[in-house]
């Protein structure tokens, strides 16, 4: 599947931010109302740790929706490597708006940068091999596209977006359809042109999937030896994806079997937020 691009996400970014502000601000920031409306402030966001940055467009949209008078000067771009204590951006504007926007801005940046950072870590582990590392549907509800974009900023790649853009036929689907060949045939009938991927648990099932014309075959928890055999048997007829039971310790050896893809759910579901700080300076009242 093609990777998401920022240009394709503009409507989603607006919606993501609208939901975030609705749950945080509700019908108004009562604490920020303590500050005179005319009071101005400026400041910066810094990172307290090494990370890969992502989330600029979401932070910009938070500022726009909270108060269009907030101005942000970005010092980094999505995909840039950050060092501890580095300034990410400088900003200025009405103090009330900046305080209201603070948490939502930081939430988006810390989550998306965490996803990009973890993705870069995995990408580094397989550097020099031909494999592409893929994300999965194990994302935070409501923020799937944002996290999948962050994955690409870390140097990894997008699998299918959801249940609608590609078939992924697993054990239960196969059982319900009466077999691998029947499931693949039915998929081609239902949605011609949609990618058809099938999960197999043995070399015998691999042969069935190849004979039935699968586009992608997921090798579920096969040994490295069996995956090398699968690559040989496949001979380029379908794309091969390794999945299941793969850890950081085994990732490189799986990549070296010659499979085309490795899918990793922890790329998006096991992230630890990047530690950020927003530092404000209030301008003197007239």
Question: What report would you give on this structure?
Answer:
The relative contact order is 0.16. Strands 6-11-10-9-8-7 form a 6-stranded parallel beta sheet. It has 286 residues and is α/β, with parallel strands linked by helices. Helices cover 40% and strands 19% of the residues. The chain has helices at residues 10-24, 56-66, 95-125, 144-153, 171-177, 180-190, 203-212, 224-234, 251-255, 266-269, and strands spanning 40-47, 51-52, 71-74, 81-82, 87-94, 132-134, 167-169, 196-200, 216-220, 239-243, 261-263, 276-282. Helix 2 runs antiparallel to helix 3, helix 3 crosses helix 4 (144-153) and helix 5 packs across helix 6.
Output the strand order for the largest sheet.
6-11-10-9-8-7
As a whole number of angstroms, the C-alpha radius of gyration is 23 Å
Quaternary structure state of the chains depicted: single chain
Mean pLDDT: 96
In short:
With 286 residues, the chain is of the alpha/beta class.
Lay out the secondary structure.
Elements: H1 10-24, E1 40-47, E2 51-52, H2 56-66, E3 71-74, E4 81-82, E5 87-94, H3 95-125, E6 132-134, H4 144-153, E7 167-169, H5 171-177, H6 180-190, E8 196-200, H7 203-212, E9 216-220, H8 224-234, E10 239-243, H9 251-255, E11 261-263, H10 266-269, E12 276-282
Parallel strand pairs: 6-11, 7-8, 8-9, 9-10, 10-11
Antiparallel strand pairs: 1-5, 1-12, 2-4, 3-5
Helix pairs in contact: 1-2, 2-3, 3-4, 5-6, 6-7, 7-8
